[in-house]
Design brief:
48% helix
Length: 354
Amino acid sequence: MSTTERTPLDREAVAAVDTTDQVTDVLALPEHLRDALWKAESAGMTGWDSAAGLVVAGMGGAGMGGLLARAILGDHAVRPILTTRDYALPPWTTPDTTVLCTSYSGNTEEVLACYEAAGALGARRVVCTTGGALAKLARKEGVPVIPMAGGLRSRAAVGYMTVAALEVAAQCGAGPRLASDLDVAAEHLEELVDAWGPDGPEDGLAKSLARALHGSVPVIAGCGVTAPVAYRWKSQLNANAKLPAFSHELPELDHNEIQAWEGAAGLGPFAAVFLDDCDSHPRMGGRIELTRQLVAPHATSTHVVSSVGTTAAERVFSLVLLGDLVSLYLAVLRGQDPAPLTSVEQLKGELAAR
């Protein structure tokens, strides 16, 4: 048995590395969903009609909420729902578009630029934040503000961001309201917290997968509703485990990236993770397995992980929780405190000084 296989990933082991208790915020995802529904209602929004759909402006974890909301709505979305992670809104944005500006701190410069651009266009705006310049501007201009719980890292507020995007999509006519689905998803996540969390068995899925990926560069592949979740995994591995990781989407990766695996052996220890979902296209299951077989000889390990649950909200959030925990357990195995984002903060500071 290797050292990694013997390393416990219980509360004590996690606490020894996780100095700011990020794991508690990850395990609180069920409560975040419930609280987010209440906070969205507290914003006092009344329904309106945005024929051109919804744009969610956000960076990092804030932008992820829009991507996950679109995946959860799936075929129930009746108007475009897109995410912009830039200083500018899409060029087709019109006054008939709703723009949701999301920033945990309220001071994200790209989101503030989109807020101002939406105002100049005359588009309806909604803000989701804890405060900062964004909240100040919104309250001054009478723009609805959806609050979030304070004291979190932005990436741990993904539940709040996703619910805000879903609620605004319902308000502007882009899709149905999914409050009951989110309540069910929260209950389902509580069961998964018990199974996958640090108090769960050492051979649980999250702990086992973290051990299998330790020492490698994970390459995460999604398909359909799991495509944005694959990017969430990549982002969380980067931020929490301080680990290079990459993501792509099936079937597109079978037209380019699959060929690159033949040259992986001389470059580094790459591992492949495929995120599957029971509602994927009927051809996707076979495609994932064939892709895995072709990649396997060139990878340190390959893994197919399926979402768990009945509704799209349950299944998407099951994989979000799993990926977040895998990233934290990898941080423990690597001896990395998951909280600090030194390079990110240095970049922001130097940009602000220019």
